[in-house]
Amino acid sequence: MRYVALLRGVNVGGKNKLPMALLRNALEKTPFYGVTTYIQSGNILFSSDLKSAQCADIISELLKSEFDLAVPVMVKEQEEISKTLKASPFKTRTIENSKFMSFGFLNESPVQEKVNTTEEFSNDMETFKIIDDVIYFYCGVGFGKTKMTNAWFEKKLGMTSTMRNYNTTLKLTEL
């Protein structure tokens, strides 16, 4: 099975430094093969015969033991990432301007009541839909100006999320 591991909060704003070359080398000692990383923000692609939860546990333990990092790790099948792009409720807006589109990958599907109260904050320029365990977020004001940050979504939903922009998400389906 081909997987994508999404690490939350590495190499962002000078915190949680994690050189991808060192990470790739460390992952070679695991039951993973075909390991590659994409950009410096904690994207790992690999193959394994293990289940996704087992892979996440292995990566979490490796991050703690080798790099003294305790960061959330989400492992998704690469095909799931591809389906996420195809399922976007904002395809038209994405085609027009992909730089305003991002995806928040959640550690599980949120409680519907929290989804309903969170979606009340959506407006024409900052609109999102939460489907299963993904936040589809179109941010026409620009991600540097929005108050709807990854931390905002985590607080509103009461769970872990990690965001990837459209271009990164697309690349994770192609590697």
From TrEMBL:
Domain of life: Bacteria
InterPro entries: DUF1697 (IPR012545)
PANTHER family reported for this sequence: BLL4334 PROTEIN, DUF1697 DOMAIN-CONTAINING PROTEIN
Protein name: Uncharacterized protein (DUF1697 family)
Organism: Nonlabens ulvanivorans (Persicivirga ulvanivorans)
